[in-house]
Amino acid sequence: MEKYDLVIIGSGPAGLSAAIYASRAGLNAVVLEKAGVSGGQVLTTYEVDNYPGLPEINGFDLGMKFKEHADKLGAKFEDASVLAIKAGAETHTVVCEGKEYEAKGVIIATGAHHALLGAPGEAELQGMGVSYCATCDGAFFRKKDVAVIGGGDVALEDAIFLARICNKVYLVHRRDEFRANMALQKALKEYANVELVLSSTVEEIKGTEAVEAIRVKNKVSGEEKDIPVSGVFIAVGIVPDSDAFASDVKCNERGYILAGEDGRTSVERVYAAGDVRAKALRQIVTAVADGANAVTSFQEDIL
Ligand code: NAP
User: Fold this and answer.
1) pLDDT, tens digit, for every residue of 257-293?
2) Which pTM does this prediction carry?
3) pLDDT value at 62 more than 70
């Protein structure tokens, strides 16, 4: 079994920030990342315009800068799918598929993934017009009509991104006001080819071999209609990637790990950082702060 001071699980902004702080502190640390899933959600963010000092950088470039920084400081990375953390008095065991790691401390920075809409046709038409990533798949729908579902930051970012390349974008939201920040709401108004379909739910995504239409229902009038589209981009929120740890550390009812700003969880020397942590503001800037705080807490705890 490999022995470390610190095991960092996840290589998004929170995990990479933790790796940078751990390397600079001279800790013997390893970052565990799922094979082929390195970098986290930031890599599929089209444009990041709220990270101080780097205006208008795209998410992929920012994610790469974080990784290069960690590499430059000598951070160690391994591919490993974590199954559980077995907490001990002196050291913890991080159990992975086919391998175990022993460490004095563990930082869980596994992030979150997109939520499913749950509409009929969604599962059947995934990859055939149903997508959860506008920046990854948007180019397939150049000059076509598409729909974006949701009213948060991601939905509005997706609608703006798609409006630049598609013929028409229907933005379908279940309420008549958006949750997204005001800057995005203002930016959206610049695009004449975005049609708002408010107070409406998606009853079905229709199509045989590819998406052909969405059936929407107006919650106020009860009216139902089909909107012909070739693509449906679902942006209805995120789900924390905390399943593997749900029996190890305390989580809230939505699965986010309960930990304060200092990252300390219900288990000694196990910390949560980034989108997986229960907190008010999930941004890249708060994720990197979490990574730094968790390493600092660990250093205090092993004094
Ligand atoms: P979000 O803020 O949770 O918004 C999810 C949206 O989907 C909400 O408008 C919600 O409607 C809607 N929704 C949820 N379940 C639904 C359902 N079953 N059917 C229809 N609509 C549904 O999620 P997000 O936009 O993915 O953002 C995730 C986090 O990342 C947020 O904390 C966000 O602030 C952050 N983020 C920030 C930025 C930025 O600052 N530039 C960029 C991207 C993401 P209701 O409004 O009615 O609840």
Assistant:
1) 999 999 999 999 999 999 999 999 999 999 999 999 9
2) 0.84
3) yes
Is residue 239 within 6 Å of ligand 1 at its C-beta?
Answer: no
Domain with CATH 3.50.50.60 in the chain: 2-113+238-301, 116-234
Q: Which residues of 160-174 are buried (b: 16+ CB within 10 A; e: fewer)?
A: bbbbebbebbbbbbe
CA–CA distance, 155 with 195 (Å, rounded to integer)? 13
Among 48, 154, 161, 218, residue to substitute to test ligand 1 (most atoms within 8 Å of Cβ): 154
In angstroms, what is the span from residue 178 Cα to ligand 1's centroid? 9
Of residues 144, 136, 156, 158, the one with CA closest to residue 228: 144
Catalytic residue check, 166:
no
Q: Is 133 a catalytic residue?
A: yes
Superfamily of domain 2-113+238-301: FAD/NAD(P)-binding domain (3.50.50.60)
